[in-house]
Amino acid sequence: MTSMLIRGGVAIALAGLAALAPTVARADAGVQETQVFTGSAYENSPKEAKREAEKMARQSALISGFLNEQCVLLYANSYRLAPGYYGANAAINCTR
């Protein structure tokens, strides 16, 4: 009976330590800054509009101190405004 109580106590202690382990690992990784930047553009083709919108978002990130390698494109959408005239929106997520 006593050995079962000891085993139960050890199991509870190990479970408690296991629950704390991910918290300790995250604390060592450090805090990272994440920011989202958006851009928009109007051009003569959907491809050009998307490219310009992404370029505008990346320029905003660069002004804020993020490197191009620290950013990932979230989306780039284009839409038709009139014959031969398109608009686009793009968003990037940057982490450092």
The major beta sheet can be summarized as: 3 strands, antiparallel
Helices, by number, come to 2
Low-confidence segments, ≥5 residues, pLDDT <50? 20-25
Quaternary state of this entry equals single chain
Count of β-strands: 3
Give the spatial strand order of the biggest sheet: 1-3-2
Mean pLDDT over all positions: 83
Order of helices and strands: HEHEE
Radius of gyration: 25 Å
Structure description:
By secondary structure, this protein is of the alpha+beta class. The protein has helices at 2-29, 46-63; strands at residues 34-43, 71-82, 85-95. A three-stranded antiparallel sheet has the order 1-3-2. Strand 2 and strand 3 form a beta hairpin. The longest helix has 28 residues, at 2-29. It is elongated and about 80 Å long.
Task: List its traits.
96 residues; alpha+beta; three-stranded antiparallel beta sheet
List the helices and strands and how they pair.
Layout (H helix, E strand, L loop, with lengths): L1 H28 L4 E10 L2 H18 L7 E12 L2 E11 L1
Antiparallel strand pairs: 1-3, 2-3
Give a summary of the structure in a few sentences.
This protein is of the alpha+beta class and 96 residues long.
